[in-house]
From TrEMBL:
Compartments, record wording: Cell outer membrane
UniProt entry keywords in alphabetical sequence: Cell outer membrane, Membrane, Receptor
Superkingdom assignment: Bacteria
Predominant location: membrane
Gene3D superfamilies with a match to the protein in the record: Carboxypeptidase-like, regulatory domain, TonB-dependent receptor, beta-barrel domain, TonB-dependent receptor, plug domain
Gene Ontology cellular-component annotations: cell outer membrane
Span of domain TonB-dependent receptor plug: 130-218
InterPro entries: Beta-barrel_TonB_sf, CarboxyPept-like_regulatory, OMP_b-brl_3, Plug_dom, Plug_dom_sf
Protein name, UniProt field: Outer membrane receptor protein involved in Fe transport
Length: 811
């Protein structure tokens, strides 16, 4: 017994000494260009003999912690693709925590953006699960919106209808500074000023800590923050020249705007506020041809006329972060915007009906249709976040509340000669409330990092839709096309994700469980449509440093594209003279399985990447047409059985000359959709190859002059009932800087066309056994905009204005 006790005491004593001789090493990694934390930087602890003892990735705050380290002398190395490697001096580890402080990584010289002289950032970066693009390289977007920035990213395309596609997939989840928004992507991105954006992250296979929503993946918009202590101001003013092509539109287009950004950073406070206003009208024209067959009659109604847009938006974005203590941070963000859009379609129709047996004309009428569609809304978002560091744990609590007052309507007027033969007015009001709560923890474990958490989110819309026809001097509500609708979505989820580095391999593996419940209630007929499901969404990402600046990446995951309330709404809307639009309350969500692998190569003056990817979609949602009557098509949303997409993505950037920078991104894929049936029609599906590319060049041919050229191209694309034509938009921008870049003037030439190239045009064609429709939409070309940008901090530095010395010091 005594011997056992003695041995136990000796073991305890030995362990105590060993533990007492163990310590820890911690620190933070930031980007040298803007002092922003760098997530997923690879950090390795190296012993004196050169052996790597342990490796890990930095967390969302750029921090790392090596715990339970034996006493000794070590070196810490820091790596990030596209950045110069960094090393600490010798670190002596004893029984305490050694803080190596903040390590700043600098972008490798060959990748630096040529636009700014100081504080330069790499135009693009490749990380474990994402590609990151610096917004400053897209000069043609200055004065525009976030949507203008996004459309220039490789493998991302925006068609004439404003629909965003990532590698050909139209569903996308948008984040603003890592926080999801409830609004549809186009609406939200159209409200954020391009000048307010620092970078855009493109995440194709997001990890488990992110929402699984978004068929194509995630776009994370990172806004600018203060990069130095004190106050800084940036002002941009924009004006548009008169239209070169107005297509005989009724009103002249107006284009002007401006934005102001203010940043303040001192001690524990980091504050930013951005204000913007943009009026951006667009002239346009459309021509179309439709025919329908009912019984033994075929009706043709070709059309042509104006299709123009009057639109403006203005708003405020504010963010404040306060450091409560060394281990506590709190932040609050506020977003408030108003958006307004009128779409005027003044169309001339020439209708005629023939007897299919004899071929003789049995009826006809020519008339004028004026269709004014209005969409507007006020949008508000409040974001609260609290972070607490306790030992090896980084605890987080986030609450986001979103409100949108969405309303509008359509006036549809048919005139024969001087007589009004029909006047229809659709109005709607569909406010939205959304709430999100996030609780998370990040903890260092065995050389890696475990992130786990719980999320709750809910949104609700209570819509009122009225369809009125003018009869005599009275406006009569038509019950068949009117109604009230409540729609709600509730999600609860838990997730866990583990990230680690083992020598040259960086990996992330995780899974998310979600319970989803959807309720649609038609109040006027007291009818409920319910849907609920339990789902698991796994994810895996790998990145291997092959040496010689080669890196291999692979990832796989499962995602969901949930239905939006517009697609579910069964109340018909008279979108324009020839179309009724209607949703399906029993529409199913799309479930997506994805996998990809690729290579990244960095060279002296060049960086290249290539990815092969696959996507399988269950229940793909399709917008289809059917015959409602002889001159109206019914546009419906319905599920097909399956869709697949095999693709190759290529891209890169190069600096062949000191004054020339090139960037190119291309995407080629085969898309196939099949298994659609609705009504009395069965469609076998459609399939074809699709490709797109975005290319650009920046020429700094003189010290204060810079020329930027860019082109976005999207080829023909198959739909379940037809085709969408190719869509191409070239742009040119010329920049002249003054006073050491404190002021610059930028001339933009958007949608450039010299000749008849079909720029900024898109034809949409669909057909069935009893109808055919094709419409060519022509959007305004050769738009000229002039921007003047003032960096007030640089101006003050140049002017060397007098300031108080002794008074400021005493104050």
């Amino acid at each position: 017994m005594l011997k056992t006790i003695l041995i136990s005491l000796l073991l305890w004593y030995g362990i105590s000494i060993a533990v007492a001789q163990q310590g820890a090493v911690k620190g933070t990694v930031k980007d040298a260009a803007d002092s922003q934390p760098m997530r997923y930087a690879s950090v390795s602890l190296i012993a004196e003999g050169g052996n790597v003892i342990e490796g890990q990735l930095t967390d969302s705050l750029g921090t790392f912690l090596f715990s339970r380290i034996r006493a000794g002398v070590y070196t810490v190395s820091f790596k990030f693709l596209g950045y110069d490697h960094a090393y600490t001096d010798s670190v002596v580890v004893g029984a305490k925590v050694v803080d190596v402080g903040t390590v700043f990584l600098r972008a490798a010289d060959q990748f630096l953006d040529t636009v700014e002289v100081t504080g330069r950032r790499a135009p693009q970066e490749h990380r474990l699960d994402r590609q990151t693009y610096n917004a400053a390289q897209f000069q043609q977007t200055v004065g525009g919106t976030a949507l203008d920035v996004v459309k220039n990213l490789p493998a991302i395309s925006v068609d004439g209808q404003g629909q965003i596609s990532l590698r050909g997939a139209s569903g996308v989840l948008v984040l603003i500074n890592d926080k999801p928004v409830v609004l549809d992507p186009v609406t939200f991105l159209s409200q954020i000023a391009a000048n307010d954006i620092l970078e855009v992250e493109f995440i194709t296979n997001p990890s488990a800590r992110y929402d699984p929503d978004g068929k194509g993946g995630i776009l994370n918009i990172k806004t600018k923050k203060a990069s130095q202590a004190g106050v800084s101001w940036i002002v941009n003013v924009q004006g548009g020249l008169p239209s070169i092509h107005d297509y005989g539109n009724k009103e002249a287009q107006q284009r002007y705007g401006g934005d102001l950004s203010v940043f303040y950073q001192r001690d524990k406070v980091d504050f930013s506020v951005a204000l913007n206003y943009l009026r951006n009208d667009n002239a346009g024209f459309r021509d179309g041809d439709v025919n329908t067959i009912i019984d033994n009659r075929q009706t043709f109604f070709p059309s042509a006329g104006e299709r123009s847009f009057d639109k403006y938006n203005y708003g405020l974005r504010m963010n404040t972060a306060y450091k409560l203590a060394a281990n506590q941070n709190i932040s609050i963000g506020v977003l408030a915007n108003r958006r307004y859009q009128d779409r005027l379609a003044d169309i001339y129709y020439d209708n005629r009906t023939i007897d299919l047996t004899s071929g003789s004309q049995i009826g006809g009428m020519s008339y004028f249709n004026s269709n004014l569609q209005n969409k507007q809304g006020e949008f508000y978002l409040i974001d609260l976040a609290y972070k607490l560091n306790v030992g090896m744990h980084n605890l987080g609590l986030g609450v986001v509340y979103e409100y949108a007052n969405i309303h509008g309507g359509t006036d549809n007027l048919n005139i024969f000669q001087t007589d009004t033969i029909q006047y229809v007015k659709n109005t709607y009001r569909n406010p939205l409330n959304g709430l999100r709560v996030d609780v998370s923890d990040e903890v260092s474990l065995d050389g890696g990092k475990l992130t786990y958490g719980y999320q709750f989110r809910t949104d609700e819309q209570r819509g009122t839709f009225l369809y009125k026809e003018q009869e005599g001097g009275t406006s009569v509500i038509i019950p068949a096309f009117s109604g009230r609708l409540n729609a709600s979505n509730h999600v609860q989820g838990v997730y866990a994700q583990y990230e680690f580095t083992r020598r040259a391999l960086t990996a992330s593996i995780g899974a998310r469980y979600e319970y989803y419940r959807r309720l649609l209630y038609l109040r006027d007929i007291d009818t409920h449509h319910r849907y609920q499901t339990h789902q698991i969404y796994p994810s895996l990402s790998l990145m291997y440093d092959m040496g010689n600046d080669w890196a291999w990446k692979a990832s796989a995951g499962r995602r969901v594209q949930r239905t939006n309330n517009f697609e579910l709404n069964p109340i018909p809307e008279r979108e324009h003279s020839e179309t009724l639009e209607q949703g399906d309350p029993n529409l199913l969500p799309e479930f997506i399985s994805t996998a990809e692998t690729g290579l990244v190569k960095n060279m002296a003056n060049m960086s290249l990447f290539a990815n092969i990817y696959f996507q399988h979609v269950k229940n793909p949602i399709q917008r289809t047409n059917s015959v409602y009557n002889d001159t109206i098509l019914n546009r419906l949303f319905t599920n097909a059985e399956r869709a697949t997409r095999w693709g190759l993505e290529l891209g890169g950037q190069a600096k062949p000359l000191t004054w020339l920078q090139l960037n190119l991104g291309g995407n080629l894929y085969r898309y196939a959709v099949s298994g659609l049936s609705f009504g009395n029609q069965n469609e076998s599906g459609n399939a074809d190859l699709v490709f797109s590319f975005n290319a650009g060049a920046q020429l700094a041919f003189l010290p204060t002059w810079n020329l930027s050229a860019n082109i976005n191209y999207l080829s023909n694309r198959p739909t379940v009932q037809g085709w969408d034509s190719r869509f191409v938009t070239p742009h040119l921008a010329l920049k002249k800087s003054f006073y050491k870049n404190a002021v610059y003037v930028l001339l933009q030439w958007q949608n450039l066309e010299l000749g008849n190239w079909g720029v900024n045009e898109q034809r949409i064609t669909t057909s069935g056994s009893d109808f055919f429709t094709t419409t060519n939409y022509v959007y305004e070309k050769n738009i000229l905009l002039l921007n003047v940008n003032f960096n007030l901090n640089r101006i003050n530095q140049l002017l060397k204005l007098p300031k108080s010395e002794f008074g400021e010091k005493e104050f």
